[in-house]
Automatic annotation (TrEMBL):
Keyword Ion transport found: yes
GO cellular component, one term: endomembrane system
Name of the protein in question: ATP synthase subunit b
Keyword terms, alphabetized: ATP synthesis, Cell membrane, CF(0), Coiled coil, Hydrogen ion transport, Ion transport, Membrane, Transmembrane, Transmembrane helix, Transport
Amino acid sequence: MEKLINDFSFGLFIWQVVIFVGLIFLLKKFAWKPILDAVNTREEGIKNALLSAENAKKEMENLQASNERILQEARMERDALLKDAREIKEKMIADAKEEANVQGARMIEQAKASIESEKNAAMAELKSQVSSLSLEIAEKLLKDELSNKEAQMKLVEKMLGDVKLN
């Protein structure tokens, strides 16, 4: 340090100060403004990027809330559709059961009517066959009884007697 103090030259100091001030002046005139403009431009760019990021974040939050709302509405609509589908299914099953019951009752009534008509037809045929057989038996008996003259007379007298009694 002592050597610095001893080697100190006032003229050299002045020249160094003048060169330093000149250098600062030149830097201020030619370099300082473009450097500051570049720094300010970069600062503005960073601010704009931060604002854009903040706006994007807010927009994403809004979109997320909107998506949640849309999902909730879609779930509610799905639930309503499923409920309607269940109700329609149950109504269709009930209608089908009712229709099956009506068809079954109609088929039973038709079967009863068919059985009754077949029964009546069978009874009529049976009566017809019984009467036919009765006539054939009666005819055979009468042929046997009326084959001789004496038996014919007895039969006629007997019938006349029955007629008078009534």
